[in-house]
Structure formats: C-alpha cells, structure tokens
Amino acid sequence: MKPRDGPQLDGKKTQEHVDRDYFGYRCAMIRGHRSLPHTRYCPFGNPLIPSATHPLAKYYEKYRNPHMFTRSSPMDGVLLRLAHASRTKPPDIWQAIRWAPRGMNLVAGTFGGELYLWKDSTFNFDMKSLPSYADCERSPPIYHIEWTHDKRYLLSADDAGRIVLNNELYKEVWLLKNAHQGAIRSFSISPTDECVAYGGAGGHVRLLNLKTGKKEGSMPGHRDEVRKIFWHHSSSLVVSGSKDESMKLWDTRIQRCIANLLAHKGSVEVAAFVPVGNKIVSAGVDMKVKLWDIRTLKVIKTLEVPETSYDYLNRSRYRQFSESNHITCISFHPFCQNVCACGTHSGDILYYDLFSGTELGRVRRAHRLAIWDVDYHPAGYVLATASKDKDLRFWSSKYGLM
User: Fold this and answer.
1) Which percentage of the chain shows pLDDT scores above 70?
2) pLDDT at 136 over 90
3) In this structure, which long-range contacts are made by residues 319-323, counting pairs with CB atoms below 8 Å and at least 24 apart in sequence?
4) CATH code of 128's domain
5) From CA 264, how far away is CA 284, in angstroms rounded?
6) Range with the lowest mean pLDDT among 10-24, 189-203, 288-302, 317-331?
7) pLDDT at position 398
8) Is 24 within the bounds of a domain?
9) Cβ neighbours of residue 61 closer than 8 Å, sequence gap 6 or more
10) Cβ contacts of residue 314 below 8 Å, gap of 6+?
C-alpha cells in the first residue's frame, strides 16, 4: 500500500488504497507443467513450452512473456529493466542471495549475519530469520548461501567459519562450529547432496559430509585465500579460484589436485563449470573472462570486460572504485544455460553468450557500489542483484510488469 493524500478527516489525511505493481508468470502453473510426464530436458530450448494440444497451452498464450519463453534464443537471459529496488530497516550490506526452489521467495544474507525473505511478485518483505550464534558477540557476515539439489535444505556459510543447515521452513537443523579456521568464502554441494566442498582463509579446500556432519578431508594447495568453489554438475570434479592467481581442478574421490591452471594476473574471483558442455569459465581482477576446455585444459576464448563510463559530476564520489571493473559474481540462465549474467566491482551488470563469446547486453551503473551476488529466478524472467550499496534490486525485461 502506498500513501496518497486524500480528504481531511478529523484533522488527519486519509490514505487511498493503491495497488502495488507486481510481475510474474504464474509460477504455480510452470511448476505443474514441469512435473508432467511428457516434459523432456532440452539443452538448447525451453522445456516449459507445451504443445498446442496440451490443456495448458491456452493459458501459456495468455500469460507467457512475449519476449521470454522462446526456443533457442540467447536474448532470453538479457534483463535490462529495473523492476524494483528494496532495502531493509536499518539498511545493511547484501552479501549473498538465492531464489527459493519454487521461485516464490528470495533468500538474502547480509553483512550483519541475518537471513531475509522477499516475495518474488510484490517485492514485499516476508520474514527475517536469525541464525543462532549464542557464543558470539555479534552475528558474523554471511558470505554464501546455497540450496541442495533436492531443494529440501538451505546451507549458509559465514565469516566465523561455520556452516548452518536450514530446512524448507528456514528453521535451523544443525550448526557446525569450527568447520574452517577463518572465513568461509564459498562452498559447493555435490550432485548427490552427500558432500559439500568449501574453502576460504588459509587456502585449503575441505570436504564435509552433509548426512553425518563430519569432515571427510582437507586438500591443501592454494597459497592464499580461496575465493570461489564450484562442483561439477555430474562428476566428482571441483574447481577453485584463489587470490594466488591460480585456478585448481580437484578430484574429490582421491582428494588430490589433478590440474593447476595459471588463469589470471591477479586474484581469481569467479571459477565455475558451464552447465552445458565440458567447459570452465573464470574471471579475475585483470578484467578478463576466460573460457577453458576441461579435456585439453587450455583457453578457448578470452573476453575483455569493458571499462565503466562515469559522469563528470559523480566521478569524484566513486573515484576509489573507478580503477577496476572486474567481475565478482556469475549466474547462469536456467534454460539458455550458455547465457550468464555477471556483476562487476563498479556496479555494472554484463550478459555474455559463452558459446559465441559475445556480449549480449550491459546495464551501466546498475548499483552505486560493487555487486556481490547475482541470481536468476527459476523461471528465468527476473534477475536479482545484491550490492554493497545496501540495495537489493530486481531486473526484468520490458514485458516484466503485469
């Protein structure tokens, strides 16, 4: 509800009801169609489009996005329109965000150690969950959150080296203290949801059994802090990027490093397996994005991150962030999985097609300060960004508002 000046009543202004704008494409209908037996996985198309004879076809023609939900279109993942910007009271820095499995809520972790929930359609604040840190003077910052592949549990890692497991109702199941000596910057869950690989300060990549809650091993190798960890979607391979300018490929079965890649001139901020094909994408502070082939361990393509343009009047205000525009986070589109959205240190959003190696779009000055995390909605029609400027913003196409 938005306040609006109305007639005077007992010396007070009344408020008229104004409907809030919302966006969405009937997520419940999409979930229902996704569970139907005839739905097949289509690596280069959209499996959510029913046939003309399907009972849901007439509803899709009425409610689907004209620009989105098209087959084999890389532009499906390019979202350039600002739908909404949200803040907490009091404002706090957003560190990590993830959409709920059904796409109805957005889970966001803050620098103050709190988990917030936002509704996907009306942008309303839904719930705040406080992890239990009874033995801490303050709640440590949450650096990474991730859902398990079966969509039943939510894991979060913080600056105190702890891992918290929450259920679907965002209630704490167990808390593992002293999982890591120092901050846990990133973690990734295995395809079978049995193990999680995490790393941070110290340069070690550690393994944790999610069923027993016990550590399974430690893999030393990096000489500096581990910035990013990503588990392969169908094998035991794990890739990690570090501040020591290297990117390592690990085999969790033998718990050894099988490849050492000198990826960038500077810290490696992003290292991830591309969902389609045997490729790895990496990005560092040298303002370059590289695409690697797992089989040959060689660079296939190198993309240059464009410099940010600044207004003359505001240049002095953001001068300390104008030196580097490197990529800090990445998210892949759920259907066009060769398309990725990247957030930069200067607050820009970049969209790349990793197959052709081209830039699809760009949002300049999407945030005033660095973007720490980005994530696509499970239906692919909205992108959420978390930034250091204490804003949580939602981006959609020009058809995003209904």
Assistant:
1) 73
2) no
3) 321/345, 321/346, 321/347, 321/369, 321/370, 322/346
4) 2.130.10.10
5) 6
6) 10-24
7) 62
8) no
9) none
10) none
- Torsion-angle region of 197 (φ positive above 0: left; ψ -120 to 50: alpha; else: beta): beta
Query: Which distant-in-sequence residues (6+ apart) come within 8 Å of 311 by Cβ?
Result: none
Token readout for 249 is: 């490929």
At 350-375, the pLDDT tens digits run 999 988 888 899 998 899 999 999 99
Residues of the chain by 3-state class (helix, strand, coil), percent to 5:
5, 40, 55
CA distance 381 to 79: 8
Does residue 47 lie within any of the structural domains? no
Report whether pLDDT(257) > 50.
yes
Which range has the worst mean pLDDT, 4-13, 17-26, 96-105, 369-378? 17-26
Q: Which residue spans within 225-370 are E strands per DSSP?
A: 226-231, 237-242, 247-251, 256-261, 268-273, 279-284, 288-293, 298-304, 327-332, 339-344, 349-353, 358-363
| Residues facing 208 on adjacent strands | 196, 215
Determine contact, residues 210/196, Cβ cutoff 8 Å. yes
3-class SS of residue 56: coil
Structural domain containing residue 100: 74-396
Distance CA 105, CA 123 (A): 9
- Could you report the per-residue pLDDT of 83-118, keeping only the tens digit for each? 888 887 778 899 999 998 878 889 999 888 888 888
CA 324 to the chain's CA centroid? 21
* Domain-located, residue 132: yes
Say whether pLDDT at 400 is over 50: no
Six token digits for residue 371:
């973007």
State how many domains the chain has.
1
What tokens appear for 174 in the block?
Answer: 């167990």
Name which residue leads in pLDDT, 395 or 24.
Answer: 395
Q: How large is the C-alpha radius of gyration of the chain? A: 22
Q: Scanning the structure block, which residue is given the tokens 């790895």? A: 280
CB 376 within 8 A of CB 351: no
Contact 118, 150 (CB under 8 A): no
* 56 falls within a domain: no
